[in-house]
Automatic annotation (TrEMBL):
<protein>
    <recommendedName>
        <fullName>Putative nitroreductase TM1586 domain-containing protein</fullName>
    </recommendedName>
</protein>
<dbReference type="InterPro" id="IPR029478">
    <property type="entry name" value="TM1586_NiRdase"/>
</dbReference>
<dbReference type="GO" id="GO:0016491">
    <property type="term" value="F:oxidoreductase activity"/>
</dbReference>
<keyword id="KW-0288">FMN</keyword>
<keyword id="KW-0560">Oxidoreductase</keyword>
<dbReference type="InterPro" id="IPR050627">
    <property type="entry name" value="Nitroreductase/BluB"/>
</dbReference>
<dbReference type="InterPro" id="IPR000415">
    <property type="entry name" value="Nitroreductase-like"/>
</dbReference>
<dbReference type="Pfam" id="PF14512">
    <property type="entry name" value="TM1586_NiRdase"/>
</dbReference>
<keyword id="KW-0285">Flavoprotein</keyword>
<feature type="domain" description="Putative nitroreductase TM1586">
    <location>
        <begin position="6"/>
        <end position="215"/>
    </location>
</feature>
Amino acid sequence: MNYEALIEERQSLRSFEQKEVPAAALQEVERYFGETARILPELDLALHCAAGIGTGLEGIAGYGGNAFHAPLYLMVLSEEKEGWLENAGFVSEQLLLKLTELGISACWLTLTDEAATKRALGIESDKKAAALLAVGYARAERAEKRLDIDTPANVKVDMRAGHIAPKISEQALFFEEKFGQEASFVEDQFDPVLDKALYAASLAPSFHNRQAYRYLQAGRDLYLLDGADEKTTEEDRQLSLGATMANFWLVYSNYNPAAARWEIGGEASAEMQLPAEYRVAAKLRLY
């Protein structure tokens, strides 16, 4: 899979065609699920597929109870332990990219009522409902402007077809050595592979497009920082962290096959000068 191209190609969406996802495509997604990379490979995961739900999820899942009437829903189920939601987000982002490769659209849905959602989808497993995806063929939309946000005074505008969510720029996403210290992305002065991976991380889906996280390199280590955000739940934030970690790692490890895996948690040094509203969510040894 060409992850760099798929990450750029994948789009948010607002509505689906009422067209079934072919059985062969679904089988390919189920096969791929068993091959996905994991942050916590020891956790037992399962993928539940449910078609023909209609309005069964309305009011109990999705943005403001809107589940988009998708022809297919995928639920990632997981054992529960520290980092389980980040792990589920990491896996679910890979599923989104596989669906993109197959020409199928998908979007994340907020889980408002876990028990009711499991009942609506016919899930009897004791595993926790971790991540819910609405899946199908997107209705054609007119070309729209995409906003890549650096600062309120620096917003890049591109025209692309479909519904494009605003994304944070690398300059605003990544710091060196201490919080707020921007890196110089000058050619021949910045690691080109790290640049590619951070760009991929900046394009990760995030609930309500908040992207409250930041990346900080201190020495040999890259830290993912989770920022408090009153507009998203802790669960949704953790899934978003998993998604951005996936985009980063899929690209970084493609150029560095021996790349280390993300580790959940970690401690910030005083030199990193983290604001009170940020914590270390994960750490990766770069070299």
